[in-house]
User: Fold these one by one.
Assistant:
Number 1:
Amino acid sequence: MAYFPMYIDLEGKKVIVVGGGKAALRKINSLLYFGAKIAVIAPKVCDDIKAIKGINVHESNVALDILQNADIVVAATRRPEINAKIGTYCNDRGIMVNVADNKELSSFLFPGVIVRGDLVVGVTTGGNSQAVSKQIRNMIDRMLPEEYEALTRKMGAYTELANVNIKSTALREEALDELVKVALSNKCVLDDKKANKVLDKYYREDAARRNA
Ligand SMILES: C[C@@]1(CC(=O)O)C2=NC(=C\c3[nH]c(c(CCC(=O)O)c3CC(=O)O)Cc3[nH]c(c(CC(=O)O)c3CCC(=O)O)/C=C3\N/C(=C\2)[C@@H](CCC(=O)O)[C@]3(C)CC(=O)O)/[C@H]1CCC(=O)O
Ligand SMILES: NC(=O)c1ccc[n+]([C@@H]2O[C@H](COP(=O)([O-])OP(=O)(O)OC[C@H]3O[C@@H](n4cnc5c(N)ncnc54)[C@H](O)[C@@H]3O)[C@@H](O)[C@H]2O)c1
């Protein structure tokens, strides 16, 4: 069965990463970007991880019990049997866990990610091929100019305005779709004057329908 893409607020969530090598490094960077609080535990943690600011590094073996304190656990040691133990421990206790070398024991996978501010696209092949994920990520990355960040933010504000001022759901949807079209016809930049003109048109139409 294909995997469901669920977007999670990681701000302040406690993540324990067991393992301190290449795989751990990539996952740490990914999680850190989205605001997680990270502790890394491994007998030997690589210098690239030690150089990351704002994470806790413990160079020791892991005691499974400590994982109870985590919201999310990543098992990325070189030892498959230890990764599996961590996976099983977490699954038995309902703790979200990614096991770098064991999809079956993972309750979530890491997607390829394209970020434009709050606009986030995640790509997964359900563990079939990270090489395919990487290709698709690169394709989408080229397709999305950085202007989408500002457009997303602006559309957030215009959506709030429309929610207050346009009572008809159908009209509101039409208005917001039109705003996006206006932006796309202008290299993804939404001109506020044009946007307000469009919204005014829909405010009037909405009022007219209510008074009819
Ligand atoms: C998307 C991305 C996110 C991320 O992790 O950053 C990602 N791997 C990335 C990069 C990457 N991965 C690997 C290298 C080689 C260099 C290296 O070893 O470091 C590189 C670097 C590169 O290619 O540039 C090796 C590798 N990866 C996995 C295995 C095991 C296996 O295949 O069985 C092995 C072989 C290990 C071995 O040989 O022993 C497994 C997984 N990798 C996943 C995601 C999940 C499935 C995603 C899906 O199904 O689509 C899954 C199942 C695990 C998970 O969820 O953790 C990121 C995409 C790149 C991008 O977007 O730029
Ligand atoms: N999912 C992915 O994206 C991905 C990518 C590469 C590798 N992998 C898998 O991840 C695992 C790690 O790969 P890597 O390239 O990071 O290896 P690595 O050799 O760079 O790092 C291994 C880490 O495991 C730690 N370790 C070893 N014994 C440990 C123990 N008893 N307890 C805690 N930590 C211990 C080491 O200290 C080291 O920090 C492998 O199983 C590999 O197949 C997954």
Note: Residues 184 and 190 are 8 Å apart (CA to CA).
Number 2:
Amino acid sequence: MLAVHFGAGNIGRGFIGNLLYQSGYETVFVDVNEELVSLLNERKQYTVVLADESQQEQIIKNVSAVNSSTDAEKAVEMVAKADLVTAAVGPNILPFIAGTIAEGLKKRTAASDAPLNIIACENMIGGSTLLKEKVFEKLNEEEKQQFETRFGFPDAAVDRIVPNQSNEDKLMVKVEPFYEWAVDQTKIVGTKPDVEGITYVDDLKPYIERKLFTVNTGHAAAAYLGYYGGVPTIDQAMKNPEIKEVIEGAVKETGNMLISKYGFEREAHEAYAAKIVNRFTNPYISDEVTRVGRSPIRKLGPNDRLVSPAKQYHELTGDMPASLIKVIAAALLYDYKEDPEAVNVQETIASNGLEQAIEQFTEIPAASELSKAIVSQYENMKK
Ligand SMILES: NC(=O)c1ccc[n+]([C@@H]2O[C@H](COP(=O)([O-])OP(=O)(O)OC[C@H]3O[C@@H](n4cnc5c(N)ncnc54)[C@H](O)[C@@H]3O)[C@@H](O)[C@H]2O)c1
Ligand SMILES: O=P(O)(O)OC[C@@H](O)[C@@H](O)[C@H](O)[C@H](O)CO
């Protein structure tokens, strides 16, 4: 069985590619990083190391790669032949792989009527749905009608902390032992892909919101408050009692919202949240706050890990989510010069004013109580 995975990066090699190999797939990675592509084609395998006391190594074999920026035709051909397509390129990159996927599906339907599922494994709500939208923009009406029933774009939630790597072996990936991969089975076309580790669910929304608003909310709190406090890594941020208090507070606020919204059993959710926060203390992982805090415009977005739960919490309880407000303020203060989105946020605040910038990035109205609370917190924190 052939899997085509877009994005041979941290999670692509460390999580998705690992599970695909364990499940008997040959995996062709599609990437634009020529160094990764060349090394994968030269070695046909790579090593995944578990970031725990065991340091257990897993050799992932039966892999190769295509550089879609220099060999687009080959990438299209791989999609046409695939039994499964997955992607982990970053939410903002999904529109840029849609063309290759569209051309691959067209080539496929010219040769066979075999169904295919395309699963985006991104940290966002509705990743595959967005990818489908972008693919369908490249189709004519007849193709849209045919592809609607022939191909599935099931949304997914993926969870495994895979930090930026600094190994001598450029293909080696150190990953935490924990992982979860939930896929919306109601959107699968044909046979469900038999991939070890996938949990198929009928309603993905509770899963993706629980994951994004617990793991990624807590992670973002550690990153932005860690950066604000001059702390370089997540595990070190967790050693700072003031930062840890805000992380736990933010996860408690999202937890209260999720429990009320989805009817999660309180004790079970609190145990899940505690396990998640404990993952951030893993001494075998050195995860820079600048990776976890990357793309602050995305993370300040109305449907992402900070603003969506903050708005839902406020609407639900009428109270201000004090910890989430601190994290949002810290994200607005995040001025890492190597991150273009961080530079954009700082320039927008400087040129348009804080209230307008908050409304622009978060869609929280400038005159609202929530916006005023963020402004007040920002002013308190600004050095
Ligand atoms: N790293 C994690 O801990 C983790 C965990 C869960 C989910 N995710 C999500 O997975 C996605 C990828 O994250 P990551 O940490 O692996 O990032 P990454 O930067 O390590 O990997 C992204 C890969 O995509 C490649 N790429 C960029 N543009 C491309 C294009 N046009 N076509 C093909 N490949 C392209 C890059 O070269 C890179 O190899 C993101 O949505 C992230 O939120 C990450
Ligand atoms: O990948 P991002 O930029 O959406 O978020 C950074 C981290 O929080 C994220 O990569 C986590 O490590 C991951 O979501 C854990 O499952």
Note: The mean pLDDT is 97.
